[in-house]
Amino acid sequence: MALGTATAPYELRFDAGRACLDLLSTTHPEERLDSVDVLRAWITGSGLVPADTPLTHADTGWLLAFRELRAQIDRLVRCRPRPGVATYDLALARVNDLARTAPPAPRAVRGEDGQLLRRLDGPPGCAALLAVVARDAVDLLTDPVARAALRQCEGDNCPIVYLDTSRGRRRRWCSSEVCGNRERVARHRRRAALSRA
Hints:
By secondary structure, the protein is mostly helical.
């Protein structure tokens, strides 16, 4: 489901560089986590679980919990830590609390062809999956190198935050295929309009 362009609300993107940042991307250009089915697709697409993990037990409570975690991570990523800022401190406490839960336990099992495959020990619970994303956010926020590589997309009206791991740290857009392409098309149209004038 990770598509090169994001034109429909059900398309999900996984190009921000971290699972916690990919979760933030689900608000643009509009709410994408609008159903349990989309949440299941996001959980699988983000790599939180192996592709064939059944998530039929996910319900609307999961959807609300992931949206709430997304809001807390957004506060932490977009704000600079300053002592005494209540919203930041509350978001930090909530993310830390969610990170305490043990993540799903992986196992290596033989596939039909004899190759080892990653499987989960049992159906993952919501708290365990939230813990994976919360731990990813804790790792990101406590790593000075990674935190320094956080960028906001320079695309027109794009609020996506991504991890810039490009050579020279010169990446400008959340996705070259989405925002970068829009910028190149706009630049071409401006040049064409100037040449006609």
